[in-house]
Amino acid sequence: MTGRSASLAMNANVTRARAVVPAAHVSTQRRSLWLVVLLAVLALLVAGSIAIGTRDVALEDIWLALSGQVDSIGQAAVSVRIPRTLLAVLAGASLAVAGTIMQGVTRNPLADPGILGVNMGASLAVVVGVVWFNIDSAQAFIWVAIGGAACSAVFVYTIGSLGRGGATPLKLALAGAATSIALSSLVIAFVLGRNDIAGGLRSWQIGGVGGATFERMEHVLPFLAVGFAISLLSARKLNALALGDEMAAGLGERVAWARAAAAFGTVLLCGATTAICGPIGFVGLVVPHLCRLLIGIDHRWLLPFSAITGACLLLLADIVGRIIARPSELDVGIVTAFVGAPFFIWIVRRQRVRDL
User: Fold this and answer.
1) Which helix or strand (DSSP H or E) is residue 302 part of?
2) pTM over 0.90
3) How far is Cα 39 from Cα 312, in angstroms, rounded to an integer?
4) Domain boundaries, the chain
5) Of 224 and 249, which is predicted with more confidence?
6) At what angle do helices 214-233 and 299-324 cross, to 10 degrees?
7) What membrane topology is annotated for this entry (predicted)?
């Protein structure tokens, strides 16, 4: 093949690749319709989260509490639910976006911050910081959790890249699962030796949004904002990576840099969320698949949709946890596990292990 023929063939491949990104052929009108629907659902769930709890609250108390009054027990209950609702929205959006990016970077349908061990890495780092170094500030919790998430992500990707074929989806899933189990065992070992803090750490380990305050969230907001910004800016790069490394390089992308940048955004989102909520699983697994069914595979749409859908899912899980265990409540980590575990099994059966 002459140099001119090779150039023409390359140009043809690039043209075909550019056509693949919007190939799901989902119209803008349909996407806009689903966006309106999801925003309406989110608004309803926010209202439900504020109104529903272990205590029944009159509508008048809800309006007064929203205006800043806390003169009655009902108004005080609503004032506690408001930051809790906001935290559920932020945590659900963060975990869903992180899961979408992980699936895009690794091209692994089973990728999720919990399954790949990122959440558990952040969790172990926090537990070590509390047990060995007596950290107690919110800022320290966040930095330690982000460091633990980063170390765990690098470790899992390194282990999954060993051997023939590099980092295949199946190897990454197995490496992540094994790492998550090992780190979870270490967490238990560290906690058992400290009876004075074991109760609080065990409760945090379940994963939940109870006890949220605006003061606690102030510390985590800058990290989440940077994480969201990096993630959204990585959308075009993720579209290119979906075509394969060689094709992405042919389109002018620096593959290693694109992966590293997107992964950094994921680490920020997972680490910051785990620091304030504890490890919450399966949100990042379930939401991306649901959103692809609705609006296709274009990450420029998929990431914002995942954020909204993740917020809806975690809000719904929190509301369900309050209702089914009255007068007590179930943490969202337990509810999402009940939803996510069957979904994980369904994906494995649908994809078939040999195809991963």
Assistant:
1) helix 299-324
2) no
3) 9
4) 24-63+281-356, 102-276
5) 224
6) 150
7) Multi-pass membrane protein
